[in-house]
Amino acid sequence: MPSLRFGHGDEEWALIRYVGDPIGEVIPLRVPGVSIGRSSENDVSLPEAEVSRHHAQLTLSRIGDTGHMVQITDLGSTNGSFINGRRIEKPKVPIALQNGDVVRVGAHAFKLKRLDELERHYHEAMIAQTSLDTLTGVSNRSAVLNFLEKHADLARRYRRPLSLVLADLDHFKSVNDRFGHATGDDALKTFGALAINRLRTSDLVGRIGGEEFLIVLPETHCPEAVSVAEDLRKAIASEALTPKGGGEPFHLTCCFGVAQLQSRDINGGSLLARTDVALYRAKALGRNRVESDI
User: Which contiguous run of DSSP H or E holds residue 245?
Assistant: First the structure.
């Protein structure tokens, strides 16, 4: 999410997630504002029943050349928005916030902070240690599976679409055997970067083991998820990878399995299992292809 810096050296305004997952997350504020709510359309999506679809809005505006103002507006939420433990009494009325104020929405709490460069790097490092795969920069196994379970519960409760894409790099062991593990690591990093650059802010990609990646697509039907997977399949297949230490560039392909949440899925794990079946079908049919479980 892009941020806007004001005339305070390297300072910037941000929300720090103090309660909820992922704890320690830094959410920079931007002009005109940051929306919070259950829907994946929001800048900050909180997939929980106690959070309204469009719950609250934070606005950041400039005053003069170097001044600033941060405000929060409850958008008429069912369970309310809270500032320092007190519920906002008048919905749709902006309320000014101060540095250090704590905003609570549902089970999540965020502290408003004016961060300098050192503080920002510290908070980003902390969240990276707990939720990111250190090699590829995508989410780690725990983070992406937690994300899946939260959105599966939300999708079941409100009968909203949710799709998964499971990706497995083809013949990855031969890459390590032929070019070395450093080249294999670069291939994994390349796939992670391609996936991140092709996803919406509401989506999440995580490495769940070895050369296998899981992509969670809230508010997405199966045909749209197939298109996402097909786009990524073409991207990785056309990417020229250079071996560490020199040598001729080579290309890597990938299999994809896709599935959409159905009424028979009792949880995210059930959906993941069906996605895995589709992935293995793609492998059995020759690899470098997308297969779906309709």
Answer: none
